[in-house]
Every structure is written in structure tokens, then in C-alpha cells.
Amino acid sequence: MSATTHDSIALPHSSTEAAERRLMLGFLVVGFSALFIGASIGPLQALNYGGINLYPYLRPLLQTYYQGLTVHGVLNAYVFTFFLACGLLVYLPARELGLSPNLLLWRACFGLMSIGTAMLVVGMFDNSSSVLYTFYPPLKGSALFYLGLTLLVVGSLFPLPILLDLRSRWKRQRPGEITPLATYMSLATMLMWFLAGFGAGTELLVQLDPWVLGLTQTVDPSIARTLFWWTGHPIVYFWLMPAYVSWYYLLPQQVGGKLVSDPAARMTFVLLLIFSLPVGSHHQYLDPGISPVWKVILTALTLSVALPSLITAFTMALSLEYGGRLRGGRGVFGWFTALPWRNASVAAQVLAMITYIFGGAGGVVNGSWQLDNIVHNTIWVPGHFHLTVGTATAMTFMGVSFWMLPHLTGRKLLLPRVALASVWLWFIGMSIFALGMHWSGLLGVPRRAWVSYMPQEAYDRVYGLAHLPLGLVALGGVILWLAVVAFYLVFFGSLIFSRQSTYEPIPFAQAFHRRASYAIGQPAGDEPGEPTPKLARALEHLGLITLFTAFITLAAYIPILWPMIQNATQATGWNVW
Ligand code: HAS
Ligand code: CU
To answer: More exposed terminus of the chain, fewer Cβ within 10 Å: N or C?
Structure first.
């Protein structure tokens, strides 16, 4: 990444821009390294469900299935996603606006999250904190785990002030114009995440950190779970929205088309901001201590959170169709086959979208209180989230890395065919894996169970009915292993061995009927004479929208939390691993 001769064409123009690229590369590399460790452990869990217990061979690295599962969940779902989000949601807006982000804050974000990650890694690998990624008390890990997590979460909030500062500087230069799209989407995401952070933030700072430091002796598990899910639902959109930024704002350009509606993109992000906050307790449909009336209200609210994704489905399908038709696609589905499928970055994202149709459909099942009774705590649920975060998000980020690595380093992507193979393997592996999980979930196979630890005869007796789908889970896991190997050959190979120079620009898309989606050097008024759409202008009031969201979030949580606070229980810590 140093300014050597070979990357002269891609060399950033200023030294600050070079520093920004280096830092973005740092976010990318740490994030993907976390995924490398986390994803490499994944197939062990898949094999566990197939009745194959490899954990005894992995000692002393991993002692138990539960330790492996904790490492897998924390590194993939928190570290990988947070690093990617905190990199992309600053880097893309800064490039879009042509302004430098506050580097001090962005470095502090990277630093805090890195220290937090290091603490988490130690706390998990020393087997002191096999509390799974939900860290539900009264399970009690070591202080390193909770303090590390606290730093990771606090660090992940830093992009918010950076974006507010970027936006206000840009607005001062261009009074009266509306926020350019990538900046708008990133800001909406961070405002959502800021409100979301209050839940787990309070749980960690008020309940768990003092408890593990010995300042308090007991903790109330119900309150902790509720605060956890306050964050734990919207966090899924903190994973998804950066991927949406790429789908809306980059992918249309990559397929040679345009984004069909800029206001629809803004609307989606605002709806995700509003709807994702009050619904977290849909993860607690089977928890005691929450009134059935609330469970019904939560069902209705949860179904509304699918709306912005449905808007996305139609907007994206049309944007892809437009690109496909421009490329000569004819007939009902010709546009689809005409997409640039050889481009691994495009293939990754379109396959991610297709997977998300099924992940989203499963989510709508989970969202209904009645149906969730059947699938809750079965491996249906990990089936659902491997299609959503594990593919829609992760594979979109993989796709982004295929153009971004060359963009940041000035060096060509190595082995593009292997890159393409990696995303197909991921797609096929995950489809088989998730099919098996959903299916065996319906047969009642529990999630998070070390089933392969049972003697063979007992395993057969208990899970015999689910042999076929559990076999699919194991098979999918093995294919995913191949996908991981292929992807990291490309990722680390390009980082270390690629020497050929290249210039890979950011594929910022244009919105239909407008100029480059309010990008630099263009007035916001789109095509000459065309005013800024009223909807886009109305949605500029992100501050008010955030206040409104804060209000409804409190309205949803006070009635749930108040009875719990009045009847607080006192649990001491457990270590069961
Ligand atoms: Fe979820 C559990 C409800 C979306 C992640 N979810 C989880 C857990 C995770 C997770 C990690 O209500 C487990 C937590 C744990 O450990 O216990 N989820 C939903 C609903 C949605 C949803 C209603 N989830 C996500 C996303 C995630 C994610 C996104 C991560 C990124 N989920 C639940 C519920 C539970 C739950 C309950 C608790 C279950 C339990 O019992 O514990 C919705 O937002 C989904 C809406 C999405 C759609 C799909 C739209 C499709 C699009 C693609 C378009 C394709 C194109 C291709 C354009 C309606 C946008 C065109 C090509 C053509 C050929 C047409
Ligand atoms: Cu949820």
C-alpha cells in the first residue's frame, strides 16, 4: 500500500486521501481477517449437526462446541460486520462529497474497535467466556469479554459524528441542496445504530460490566435480555444497510444501468430507521414476563419492518432489469441472464439478493408470534440468519472487496475466476446448508446443541427423523469451507502478491432521470429544469425523524421493561462450559 512506482495511476491525489485509503484498507483487512477465523470454524458446527464431532481433535485450540460457536458468532456477526460498516459508511460518503472525513475520529474508531477485538479474542480463546454471541446472563464470562465488547460497540458509533461533520461542511458549501445519496444512506444507518446502541450499551455499562468487575453480585436476566434485543434486532439492519448502500448506489453502475429511484432509496432507509427500533422483543416471543398484548403488537410492528425490504426488492429488480436490457437482454428473463455474470463483484451481489428473498421470507415467518412458537430455538433460526447476514450481507461485502481492494491498493485483483468460483460456492453451499437447517428446524432439532457429543446410538434415536436434512447441513458446511478457501486465496493473494497496477474507480451509480445521484459537481436539481423531488426534500429532516423514532422506541420499551424492573430478580453468575 505504500506509494511505490507501480501504482502511479491509482495513486491518490493528496496525502490525506492516501491516508484515508490506508485506513479504509485497515478496516477491510481486519474485518475480513475476523471473518476468516470465524468462517473457518463454521463448518465444524455444520458437521456437528451431521453427527461428526471434530472438537476433541482441536484441543487445546478449542475445547468445546460452545467455545467455537462463541468465536464464530462474535467474530463474524460483530467484528467483521462492524469493521466493514465503519469503514464503508465513512469512506464512500467522503469520496462522494469530495471532502476529507475527520481522520482523528476515524482512527480512534479503528483503534477502539481493534483493542476491543483483541480483548474479545483473548477472552474467547482462553475459554473463559463461552457465553455465545448473545452473552445472556446468568452465563458469566471474563471481564475481558464484556469490556472488549463495550469498546467494540462504543467505537462503532464514531462514524456518526464524522458523518454529521461531513454533511454540515458540504451543506455550507451548497446551501439549500439535499444530502447526496450515499451520505444520506450512511447517516440514516448511523442514526439508527446510535438509537439501537442504547440497549446493549445500557446492558453492558449498567449491568454486565459492573457485575464482571465484582462491583455488583447479581444481575436480572430478563432485563438484560430485553436490553440486548433492543440492540439485537436493529443490529441486523446495521449489517444489512451498508450492503443496501452498495445495492442501491454501486451495483446499478456495475451492471451498466441506473438506480431507478433515488427517493425510493431514501424512503427505504428512513423506514428501516423507524421500524427496526421498536421491534426487538420479537426475539422474546417465548420469554416469560412480557404481556401477550405486546406480543401481538410486536407481530404487527415486525411485519412492517419487511416493507422497506420489499420496496428494495422492487427497486433493485427494476434497476437490474434496466441494466440487463441495456446490455441487450430480451424477453421476460433475458435481462437477468444478460447481467455481467462473469464479474465476480456483480455475481456476488445478485446472488446475495436472490438468497435474501428466502432469508426475508423466513424472517416474516419468525415475525409472527404464532409461527415463531414452532421455529424458535430450533436450527431454523440459524438457517434464517445465514441467508440474511451470512449471505446477503457477507457476500455483498465480499463483492465490494473485489473492486475495493484494487481501488485502495492500485493493484489488480488476483485470480478473478477463483473469485467467481468462491461466490458460487458460497451461494450453493449456503443454499444447501440453509435448506437443511430450515427443514430440520421444523422437525424440532434445537439450535446451539452439541448433538455430535452424544453416543451414536442416542444421536440416531433422537435425531433419526432428521438424518437427511442434517446431512444437508453438513454437506453445505463442507462446500462453504471450499468457498472460504477460494475467497481468501483471492483476498490475501491480491493483498500480498499482486503487483500489476490498475485503476479501479468507485462505481458510483446515477439515479434514473437525474444526474449522478446528486454527486459532486452537479447541482441537486437533476436534469435541467427538474426540481428536487418533494419526497427527497421532506426526508432531509433526519433529526426530526430520529427524534420521532426515539419516542416510539421508548413507547415500545417502557411498558415491557417497567414490570421487569418492578419484579427484578437477582441471579448470580454461571459457568457451564
Ligand atoms: Fe431476522 C432472528 C425477523 C431480516 C438476522 N434474524 C434473526 C437472527 C438473526 C437475524 C441473526 O421476528 C437470530 C438472532 C438470535 O441469535 O437469536 N428478520 C426478521 C424479519 C426480517 C428479518 C421480519 N434478520 C433479517 C436480516 C438479518 C437478520 C436482514 C441480518 C442481516 N429474525 C426475525 C425474527 C427473529 C429473527 C422474528 C427471531 C426468531 C426467533 O425465534 O428467535 C425482515 O426484515 C425481512 C424482510 C426481507 C424481505 C426480502 C426482500 C428481498 C430483497 C431481495 C430482492 C432480490 C432481487 C433479485 C432484486 C421481505 C430485498 C432480483 C432477481 C429476480 C430473479 C427477481
Ligand atoms: Cu429481529
So the answer is: N
How far is residue 448 from each of residues 219, 477, 530, measured CA to CA in Å? 23, 16, 55
Alpha carbons 31 and 17: distance in angstroms, whole number: 21
Query: Count of CB atoms within 10 A of residue 567's CB?
Result: 11
- C-alpha distances in Å from residue 147, one per residue of 64, 112, 150, 227, 463: 23, 11, 5, 17, 39
Question: What is the secondary structure of 492-504 as a DSSP string?
Answer: HHHHHT---B---
pLDDT digits (tens, 9 = 90+) for 44-96: 999 999 999 999 999 999 999 999 999 999 999 999 999 999 999 999 999 99
Q: How many other C-beta atoms can be found within 10 angstroms of the C-beta atom of residue 523?
A: 12
CA neighbor of 520 nearest in space, from 177, 257, 189, 164: 177
Q: Is residue 534 packed enough to be buried (19+ CB in 10 Å), middle (13-18) or exposed (0-12)?
A: exposed
Average pLDDT, the chain: 93
pTM of the model: 0.95
Q: Which of 239, 336, 385 to mutate to test the pocket of ligand 1 (most atoms within 8 A of CB)?
A: 385
Residues pairing with 511 in the sheet: 259
Q: Best substitution site from 246, 356, 384 to test ligand 1's pocket, by max atoms within 8 Å of Cβ? A: 384
Report the distance separating Cα 273 and Cα 237, nearest Å: 9
With beta carbons less than 8 A apart as the criterion, state whether 267 and 307 touch.
no
Residue 400 CA to residue 138 CA, distance in Å, equals: 39
Residue 6: the pLDDT is 34
User: How large is the average pLDDT for residues 487-513?
Assistant: 89
Q: What is the spatial distance between Cα 254 and Cα 374, in angstroms, rounded to a whole number?
A: 41
446 forms beta bridges with 378
Q: How far apart are CA 351 and CA 349, in angstroms?
A: 5
Cβ contact 476:431 at 8 Å: yes
Looking at the chain, the number of H-run helices and the number of E-run strands are 24, 0
